Amino acid sequence: MVTSNSNLFKQLFGNANQWFRDTPTRVLDQAYDAAFKIRSLENEHFHGDRIPSESHAEYSDRALAYFHAELKKNLKIIETRLMVFNTSRSVLGFSEQIYPPSMLKDEIAHKIEKNGSSPHHQPIMLICEKLDYIDSVISRYQPTPPPQISVELITSPPEQSLSLKETILNPDLSIMNARGKNKSSMAANPSSGKTMKEDLTAKSSTSVLPRSLLRTLNRIQQELRPESELEIIENYRKSKIKTLISIRFVLLLILIPLLTQQISKNFVVGPLVDRIFTHPEERPIFLNVNMEEEALIELQHYEERLKFQMLIGQAPSLTPEEVDEKLQEKAKELAEEYKAEGSNAIKNVFADIIAVFMFCFVMVYNRKEVDILKSFMGDLIYGLSDSAKAFIIILSTDMFVGFHSPHGWEVILENTARHFGLPENRDFNFLFIATFPVILDAVFKYWIFRYLNRSSPSAVSTYKTMNE
Question: I want to staple 318 with a disulfide (CB 3.0 to 4.6 A). Which of 247, 322, 328, 394 is the partner?
Fold first, then answer.
C-alpha cells in the first residue's frame, strides 16, 4: 500500500515536473498560433496589409469592429504567453534543452532534412524562427520604439533637431499620450459605448477599495512594466523638446513683431512719409487739438518763466521786442518738435499694422508650435501648487479688474492715443474703463467656475480663502 502511494506520488510529481518543463514549449506554441491567426486575417481579408485602425472601404464598421476584437484578443494572448515564456525559460535555465524530444518531431525532422543540422541545436533554431515570426506580426501594431538618448541631443545637427521636432509634432506620437491611448483603445473596441466619465463613475460606485489606493496600485503596476523605463525617458525627452520649442516660439512672437516694426518704420514707412511731405511747410504742425493745447500751454509757461527770471534778477531785463523775438524762436522750436511728433505718429500707425500682420503670419504659419505652446502653458499653470495658483489669480484680478485698476487703464489709453497721434477722448476712456474690466472679471470668474473648479477644486478653495 505504501509502495503504491509512493509510486503514485512519484508519478504525479513527475507529471507536474514534466508539465513545468514543457511550459516554454506550450506557451510559445500558443503565442505562435495567435500570431498565425493575425497573419491569416491579414492575408485573407486585407491583402497582406495590417488591420486598419480606421474605417475601411471593403468592410462596414461592425465587421471592422470584429476584426479589431480578434486582433486585440490575439495580441493579448501573445503578450501574456511571451511573458510566461521568458519567466519559465529563465527559471529552467539556458543550458537545459527546452523542447523535449517527444514534441515537434515532424518539424525537427523536416529541419534536419532541409538544413542538415544536428538534433541538439535544432530546437534553438525553431525557437528563433517562431520568435522572429511573432515579432514580425506584432511589430506592425506597436509604436516605434524611442531612439537612444545621448549627449548628441544637445549638439545635434539641424537635420536631427528637425526630426526631433517632427517627432513631437507628429499626431501619432503626440504629447498627450493618455489621449492617444484612449483613442486607440476606443478604435480597437468601438462596440464599447461607455465614455471615460461613465467608467470613472462606475468604478467609484462599485469599487470597494478607495480610489487613492487603486491609483497607487495602478501606478506601481505601470512602473513595474518592462517598457516603463523607456516610457519615462521618452516622456522626459518630449517634455524637454516641448519646453525648448515653447521658449523659442515665445521669443519669436516677441522679437519678430518688434524688429518688423522698427525696420519698417525706419527703412520703409519713414522714407515714404518723408517723401510725401517733402517740404517742411507741407507737414501739419498739430495732428489733433490736444497737441495744439499742449504747445500753447508750453509756450505760455515759457513766457511766464522768462518774465519771472527777469523780475528776480536771474535774467537781464529785455525790451518787449526782445521778448517777442525769444517767444518767436520758442514757437518755431515747438512747431518743429510737434511736426516731428506728428510724423512719428503717422509712421507708427503703418509700422504697427505691418507688425500685426507679421505677428498673425507667424501664428498661422506655426500652428503646431502654437498647439505646443498652449500645451506647455497648460502644464505650467495646472502644475503649480494651489497657493501659487490662488496668488496668480488674485494678482491678475486685482491688477486688471481691481479697485485701483482704472488708473492703470487711463495711463494705457493715454499712451496708446499719443503713440498713434489720436486726440484724447475722456468719454471713451471712461466708457472703456466702465465696461472692459467688467468683461475681464466675468471671464476670470467663468474660467474659475468652468475649468479650474474641475481640474483643481483645492486651488479654488484656497483662492476663496485668500480672497476673503
Answer: 322
Burial pattern 37-69, b for ≥16 Cβ within 10 A else e, equals bbbebbeeeeeeeebeeeeeeeeeeeebbebbe
Q: What is the pTM of this model?
A: 0.51
Question: What CA–CA distance (Å, rounded) separates 232 from 173?
Answer: 14
Query: Hey, is 157 helix, strand or coil?
Result: coil
Q: Are residues 23 and 120 in the same domain?
A: yes
Neighbour count for residue 25 (Cβ, 10 Å): 20
If you count them, how many residues does the chain have? 468
323, 355, 381 — which closes off a domain?
381
Cell numbers given for 39: 497573419
For 93-195, where are the alpha helices, taking DSSP H only?
105-115, 122-138, 158-169, 177-188
CB < 8 Å & 24+ apart, contacts of 40-45:
41/67, 41/70, 41/71
Q: pLDDT digit string (tens) for 236-261?
A: 888 889 899 999 999 999 999 999 99
Q: By residue range, what is the domain housing residue 339?
A: 158-189+227-381
Residue 68: name the closest of 41, 31, 30 by CA: 41
Do 361 and 401 belong together in one domain?
A: no
Regarding whether 114 and 16 lie in a shared domain, the answer is: yes
